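Supplementary notes for students who missed Thursday's class. We covered one full example, reproduced here. Read the sequence, then the structure, then the short commentary at the end.
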Amino acid sequence: MDRIVLSQQVELGKAVLIEGHPMEALRFQVGRAGIIVTLTDSEEKDFRGRVLSITDKEASILVFETFLFSTESPVEIVLLQALPERERMELIIQKATELGVSTILPFKSERSISLEERDAKQRKSHRWQQIAIKAVQQSRRAKVPRIESYHSFQEALEVGRAEGLKILLCEKEGESLKVILRQYLPRKIYAMVGPEGGFTEEEVKLAKAGGFIPIKLGQRILRTETAAITLIGILQYELGDLS
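Structure (token representation):
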């Protein structure tokens, strides 16, 4: 449901009728008449189209633009983000989506705020997926990144046990990101970013035991939202589709 993939080829200037699974994906992207979406046809080419009409079962979309290259990055990035205070999570979701992440998973670390504490002030977590959808529409992406449910630190480590490069942003220690990326040349990356104040020594120890490699982004201390956005940008530049 995160991508509108068609089983046929499409032509510029012509309308295409969609139903079934592509229709479910359109619904997921808050499809309505007049909205512009990115479609992927049977040859994996991406197109832009405007929804002309929509019913419960089908929609007509006028295709008006094609892309020379895919709107999706060849590298899959899963952002594991310690929950920050105030509106910073919304900013991270928006910018990480624009930069091409595939999944964002918020988690509780020892020095981060809890979801209960954050939502007690003003409940916003229910809007996170909608923020990602709007960022997809703005950036013309084809795929909507999944905003996972809130996890504990240990649960976040378990998610990262799947195949792929696992990196952990550290303030006090860490290897060169550039060296690590050129050594592994990964196609899937689990990037874990901590809260203001960073990870505790015990959390770093547990992450290392879980296969995460501590890395640094220079000598300056970055806010958690700056660190997350910067890291994703670097990953896309080195391995993805930013040039």
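Commentary. The domain at 76-239 is CATH 3.40.1280.10 (Alpha/beta knot). The CA atoms of residues 160 and 190 lie 6 Å apart. If anything here is unclear, bring it to office hours.
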